[in-house]
Design brief:
- By secondary structure, this protein is of the alpha/beta class.
- The chain has 10 helices and 5 strands; from the N terminus they run βαβαααααβαβααβα.
- A 5-stranded parallel sheet has the order 2-3-1-4-5, with helices on both faces.
Length: 219
């Protein structure tokens, strides 16, 4: 089974993806990691992340091992990593360079320990429209910009990352515009995706809704 979960930042995609992957014993692929890895690699090398050719070269050289290594960097999950990922992911050549790697995972999904899995849950922006358009279940998770900014601000606060709500909100507005307006694979729900607004729902309520959708498909 292939499940895709798309939507804007801090809508709850990652948490839901992890819950569903664990519940149905599926592999979990966070597609945002590949773009974070490219963006942060460039920042650490003092490369211009707005330069599409340099970003494409970095993407072509990315390996799973390199991605896992740089994911340990403190800025990988910070606002810095998020912003860098959004910028490099807007480059068509970067998306093309990373597309095959993401698609191939669905053909032979594996768990983190290397053992084979019977399916995968994708978490991203265009997994249901571009990476796996034939997925069994497609979900689009969203929430109001203010709610998402508050969630991300609280997350950063718990991790000891110094920032302000206003800064997080502004960055989120800019990122949403960039993700939805990029020329290649803009963020949008697939035509057959189920849209879930999590603004007034807790994670258990969201998981229950998603589980009902998955189990209906399984039957």
């Amino acid at each position: 089974m292939i499940i895709t979960i798309d939507g804007p930042a801090a809508a709850g995609k990652g948490t839901l993806a992890a819950i569903l992957a664990n519940k149905y014993h599926l592999a979990y692929f966070d597609t945002g990691m590949v773009y974070r890895a490219v963006g942060l690699t460039m920042l650490l090398a003092h490369d211009d992340i707005h330069n599409q050719e340099l970003a494409e070269k970095t993407a072509q050289q990315l390996t799973f091992i390199k991605m896992m290594e740089i994911s340990k960097h403190p800025d990988f999950r910070s606002n810095i990593g998020s912003s860098a990922a959004s910028i490099v992911s807007a480059h068509p050549k970067v998306r093309l360079a990373l597309l095959k790697m993401q698609q191939n995972f669905a053909l032979k999904p594996t768990f983190a320990d290397g053992n084979p899995a019977q399916g995968v849950v994708y978490d991203g922006r265009d997994t249901g429209t571009v990476i796996c358009p034939n997925a069994d279940v497609k979900l689009f998770i969203t929430a109001s910009t203010q709610v998402r900014a508050q969630r991300r601000f609280d997350e950063y606060k718990q991790k000891g990352i110094s920032t302000s709500y206003e800064e997080v909100l502004n960055d989120m507005i800019i990122r949403d515009q960039r993700d939805s307006q990029r020329s290649t694979a803009p963020m949008k729900p697939a035509d057959d995706a189920v849209i879930i607004d999590t603004s007034k729902l807790n994670i258990q309520e969201v998981a229950d809704i998603a589980s009902r959708i998955v189990e209906k498909k399984l039957k």
